[in-house]
Design goal:
Oligomer: heterotrimer
Number of helices of chain C: 11
Number of strands of chain C: 0
Largest sheet of chain A: none
Largest interface: A-B, 68 and 63 residues
Structural class of chain C: mainly alpha
Helix content of chain A: over 70%
Distance between the termini of chain C: 34 Å
Shape of chain A: globular
Radius of gyration of chain C: 23 Å
Shape of chain C: globular
Chain lengths: 305, 539, 297
């Protein structure tokens, strides 16, 4: 087990290198530079600005300098927000996104899995249709729709919550619901599918035939296997959730990391793009590793030897 | 047994909801009233709070709370008032300004603001290595341009000196009547030398000095807290020279996007917004007209034509396109905030100048021109493209105009959008047929608009040039009498509209939501609002 | 090969009857029938509807502006006074088309890639799945921006490419995990020792067992793709006005929900209806092709 983890962590190094190099190339291919503006800056001034950020060097030197700094643990200064370091921005905003993401993740599991399982057990009964219809609504309505609707109802009409901010416990409710319910819908469908598959397996049938109470059958034998696709899905889902959502954090004015992923790219904020991408890559790698470990625990047969 | 997590979750959610609902919760407007703090929406996060490297209006409006120049603007009349300089003398030839410092002028750490501080600041912004985009705003100072361009190495040769530590003498290249106005611009503001040098060298652009724990300014407020995408908080600066005239204890600047901003305002979480989403304008007009405010702004929205490309190289085609746009419909039904249809390029009353030129709205004539150009009823008109940067308002406008050209001229334009930086790059490369553009005046003078048409102007991407036009604009720059100047501009504008390298569409207005408790916030064309005069009074 | 082995012929006959069985089961599934008819109705409406209406999708009436549903305009009009009903139908052509085509691209890549990786195990799997991790992490916005300037921006192929690029990844992960689990089953080991080829095992034992999760995830991918298309159009890729798509309509509607609610409600409704119908079809397919159901039948 430990060697497996160690091997995966070693594999992370080339993976990160590929990500960083590809991002570096993408950034340089993209049209427009970080210091282009509505009113064009005089070329000699632009050159001076670029000197501050080491952009006066040729591309391969920039590339090696970037990796040199990276090894020193320095992601560099943001190009867009003068005076802010990329690490500083991530350190300041990530905890917010993490908190939002963890809660949303829990909501999505607590709501999604039971709905999916109950629906599977009541297969072909009206209650299944109702549950799944509800889940479908969640899938059809992306966060940029759910968010404004929840705001309209609970914030503008009922005035239960503030429409913006991240200051009071109450401010957490709507954004967590917006994000969590979206993912819950996906998880419910995956869980139901997994459960339906499992319920037809011979060993479940045998267990049933032996006369055990149905719920026990479901629990002891089926659940683990049934949640297999759900678990595979949760790796990327969790990475997406805790790294922050552009839409939700913008709509609710939450000071998280989410908006920076998109805005850094739109601003051609090279260092910030690189920083967020590498950060996200590490999250993905770690979470996918965790998912694989969980899957191994759920189904010992898949153990990597 | 199957547990029933769903009801449990729902119940706990409901409880949570009730708790947060009952534990109510003050709105920012209520809190602002009791703490005497203002909550201002600013739309986007400022790129920096260093007055010498920023270029934007958002940054300016925030920094106005934290800095003060030699002169200031009256909040209501926009007239020049004393700032750090208590009084001044201008030599008879207009080449020498002697600024007498207010002994009460203080930095937020208690230091006196001295002429040396200003000389240091001007040296910093003019140091080529800093790369200050707006350094040219100081070019009227003798030797400043040479120093900034590296031709002059010794800053003491620049026309700035202080005989006694309370007076700053500024020598100019040429008489500059608007110099006292220039001094209110952020490029002329001082920065605190010890703070700058503690955080790096004089020319360091990447510096921590604008962070709250380092920051020293000389404005009515001082920086207390700054978190990206969360807000900037300023508190009363006790050392400010007129601290007792500052009415509020603090200001919160919140970078909220317009939709969320409007929701925040509606629920009393903002005193002021940066703008109003178009689809909400009618609602406010109808329900809360006292809260929505419109001001004319010094800006024009227009389409740039690439006069090198077929068929736009034909003047008749350009005119046909321009004459068939129904601008009244656009301003009335799409823009809704009281924008003025633009039948010429320079906004009315720019520096007291309003042109008499007017391009017609005449679809009949447009069709005739198009037929003359060889495209009767739009027949065989080549495919062409209209490029705009991604935004709902640009798209809506483009779609409306696309339809007008289709119905009036029977020609099809393809729309294409690009995100901002790609759009800038395409524009720079001149790789477009028609391009959406806008211009906001840097100062209140027709020159800031009409110089865009000069052949060599960096913002003229139309490939159009006219030597006569260039001469007129050049001449106007050196002409003294305002009447003679206006005549030159008038002639230039005639040429511009006759040759139609650009199609003006409308003149901008700013729209803003203001809570009734806010007093001392006056509308003005420059959209500058000094905070010391702003007050909160409950009704 | 000219001479087919007897075993193969038997297998193909069995497969044909399995297909027929599946089709019968599918058409006998009530929900699948409802879903199928509904989906056909919506598609036909999108294809034919615009020709029958007296309005066109780009015909404006600025003075009329955004008005709620009326006899003249069944579903109301947007802020340029365009008939919303026709715009939804026109948008449906784009969205259903893109939704299907891009999903199929993602499906093909994801299933092939994932099942190969999961089946191979060991070093190959490690490399293949780390590659998936890497692509996951790439900044999607940057990729699309680069795509728009590198290729002809109006090509519909680019949309599929951009969407396919992100959507196959999760599919690959799910399939890979599933395959790995199946691969270790004793009966597969047994058939391997009995001399069955890897391809046969993949086709006969692995793929049929993947159907469940794959179909479910496909039905989840279609809405994601349809909505992603509106993000692409923000970056300058994809449909350009006056054309529209469901993603764009819903996106715009959501911003104006409290003033012009119909601009959100109707597009979201038809979007949901379509997805509902697809889900019922998906469930039906799943049940119909279920290998376990088959054994017991």
């Amino acid at each position: 087990m430990l060697t497996f983890i160690a091997r995966r962590l070693l594999q992370a190094i080339p993976t990160l290198w590929v990500v960083a190099t590809a991002t570096f190339i993408l950034l340089r291919l993209a049209p427009g530079g970080p210091f282009d503006d509505e009113k064009p800056v005089a070329p000699e001034i632009k050159k001076q600005i670029e000197t501050h950020y080491g952009l006066n060097h040729s591309l391969h030197i920039q590339y090696f300098q970037f990796f040199g700094n990276l090894l020193k643990g320095d992601l560099g200064p943001s190009y867009k927000y003068s005076g802010w370091e990329v690490q500083e921005i991530i350190a300041q905003t990530f905890p917010v996104s993490l908190e939002l993401g963890i809660w949303a993740f829990l909501v999505s599991l607590i709501v999604g899995i039971p709905i999916g399982i109950i629906a599977a057990i009541r297969h072909n009964k009206p209650s299944e249709t109702i549950l799944m219809a509800t889940a479908m609504v969640g899938i059809c309505l992306p966060s940029f729709v759910i968010g404004p609707i929840l705001l309209l109802l609970f914030s503008l009409q009922l005035e239960w919550f503030n429409p913006i901010g991240w200051n009071y416990p109450g401010d957490r409710v709507l954004p967590i619901m917006t994000l969590g319910l979206l993912y819950a819908a996906y998880i419910a469908r995956l869980a139901r599918g997994g459960m339906l598959d499992v319920l037809k397996h011979d060993y479940v049938r045998t267990a049933r035939a032996k006369g055990l109470k149905e719920s026990l059958v479901v629990y002891r034998h089926a659940l683990r296997t049934a949640l297999y696709p759900v678990v595979a899905y949760t790796g990327p889902a969790a990475a997406g959730l805790i790294s922050g959502s552009f839409v939700v954090e913008t709509i609710f004015f939450i000071p998280g990391l989410g908006p920076f992923f998109v805005n850094a790219a739109l601003n051609r904020d090279y260092t910030m793009v690189m920083g967020t991408v590498l950060f996200y890559a590490i999250l993905i790698i770690l979470l996918n590793l965790m998912v694989d470990l969980i899957q191994m625990w759920m189904n010992p047969r898949t153990r990597h030897d | 047994m199957i547990p029933k997590p769903l009801p449990t979750v729902l119940i706990s959610l409901a409880t949570l909801t009730l708790i947060s609902g009952c534990g109510k919760k003050m709105t920012n407007v209520e809190r602002g009233m009791s703490d005497r703090e203002l909550y201002v929406g600013i739309g986007t996060e400022p790129a920096a709070l260093d007055p010498q490297i920023t270029t934007g209006l958002t940054e300016y409006s925030v920094m106005l709370a934290f800095f003060e120049g030699l002169t200031t603007l009256n909040a209501e009349t926009m007239a020049i008032e004393p700032g750090v300089a208590k009084s001044w003398e201008i030599s008879a030839d207009g080449l020498r300004y002697t600024m007498y410092f207010d002994p009460e002028a203080r930095w937020s750490n208690g230091d006196r603001v001295t002429p040396q501080d200003f000389i240091f600041s001007f040296e910093r912004i003019l140091t080529p290595l800093l790369g200050a985009p707006y350094a040219y705003m100081l070019y009227s100072i003798r030797g400043a341009e040479a120093f900034h361009k590296g031709q002059l190495k010794d800053f003491s040769q620049v026309g700035l000196h202080t005989p006694n530590g309370t007076t700053l003498i500024i020598e100019l290249n040429a008489p500059t009547p608007y110099l006292l106005n220039l001094m209110t611009h952020n490029t002329w503001w001082p920065v605190h030398p010890p703070t700058i040098l503690r955080n790096g060298k004089i020319f360091d652009r990447i510096s921590q000095w604008t962070k709250p724990k380092e920051f020293v300014g000389n404005g009515p407020y001082q920086l207390n807290r700054w978190r990206l995408n969360n807000g900037i908080h300023g508190v009363r600066n006790p050392h400010y020279r007129k601290a007792n005239e500052v009415k509020l204890n603090g200001i919160h600047f919140l970078p909220i996007e317009p939709q969320a901003e409007e929701r925040a305002f509606r629920t009393n979480h903002l005193h002021l917004t940066s703008t109003v989403p178009v689809h909400r304008i009618d609602w406010y007009r109808e329900h809360q007209p006292e809260r929505i405010h419109f001001d004319t702004a010094l800006g024009v929205y227009y389409y740039m034509l690439n006069t090198k490309r077929m068929p736009l190289n034909d003047l008749r085609v350009r005119k046909a396109l321009a004459y068939s746009i129904n601008r009244e419909q656009i301003t009335e039904h799409i823009l809704k905030a009281g924008q003025k249809p633009a039948y010429h390029f320079t906004p009315p009353n720019t520096g007291g100048y309003t042109t008499t030129t007017r391009l017609p709205y005449d679809p009949e004539l447009a069709r005739k021109l198009l037929a003359d150009a060889g495209f009767p009823d739009g027949k065989d008109f080549p495919k062409f493209e209209l490029l705009y940067n991604t935004s709902e308002s640009h798209r809506t406008l483009a779609v409306a105009i696309q339809q007008m050209w289709k119905t009036e001229l029977n020609i099809e334009v393809e729309l294409h959008n690009q995100e901002w930086k790609a759009y800038l790059s395409t524009r720079e490369a001149g790789d477009f047929d028609i391009l959406r553009a806008a211009w906001f005046g840097d100062y209140d003078d027709p020159n800031t608009f009409l110089s865009l048409g000069e052949t060599e102007n960096g913002n003229n991407h139309t490939n159009w040039g006219n030597p006569e036009y260039d001469t007129l604009i050049e001449k106007a720059a050196f002409t003294q009498g305002s009447k003679a100047r206006k005549q030159l501009f008038q002639k230039a504008e005639d040429i511009l509209i006759e040759e139609m390298p650009v199609i003006p569409i409308y003149f901008y207005v700013t729209s803003r939501l203001i809570h009734p408790s806010v007093k001392g916030w006056y509308p003005n064309i420059l959209d500058i609002h000094p905070y010391q005069s702003v007050d909160l009074i409950s009704n | 090969m000219i001479k087919r082995r007897r075993e193969d012929i038997v297998a193909s006959v069995a497969a044909r009857s399995l297909k027929r069985d599946a089709w019968e089961r599918l058409t006998h599934n009530r929900m699948a029938r409802i879903g199928g008819s509904l989906f056909i109705c919506i598609t036909l409406l999108c294809l034919i509807g615009p020709f029958l209406s007296s309005y066109t999708f780009d015909q404006q009436n600025l003075a009329y502006g955004a008005q709620g549903p009326s006899l003249k305009h069944w579903l109301g009009t947007d802020d340029l006074g365009r008939d919303l009903f026709i715009r939804i139908l026109i948008g449906g052509r784009i969205s259903i088309g893109v939704g299907f085509a891009a999903t199929i691209v993602a499906l093909l890549i994801g299933v092939t890639y994932g099942s190969l990786a999961g089946y191979k195990d060991g070093r190959t799997e490690a490399i293949m799945m780390r590659f998936v991790d890497a692509v996951y992490a790439l900044p999607f916005t940057m990729i699309v921006i680069v795509l728009t300037v590198t290729f002809d921006k109006k090509s519909i192929f680019l949309i599929f490419m951009a969407i396919g690029l992100v959507e196959w990844l999760t599919m690959a992960r799910i399939v890979c995990g599933q395959t790995r689990a199946l691969r270790k089953n004793t009966y597969i080991e047994a058939s391997l020792t009995a001399g069955a080829s890897h391809l046969r095992i993949l086709a006969k034992h692995i793929l049929p067992n993947l159907l469940g999760p794959v179909i479910i995830y496909t039905t989840l991918t279609i809405p994601a793709v349809i909505l992603l298309e509106s993000v692409l159009s923000f970056l300058g890729l994809g449909v350009q006005p006056p054309m529209s798509s469901w993603g764009i309509l819903i996106n715009e509607g959501a911003q104006k929900i409290d003033i012009y609610p119909w601009l959100l409600i109707f597009p979201a409704m038809i979007f949901s209806l379509t997805l509902f119908s697809l889900n019922f079809i998906g469930d039906g397919l799943r049940d119909a092709f279920d290998p376990k159901e088959n054994h017991s039948a």
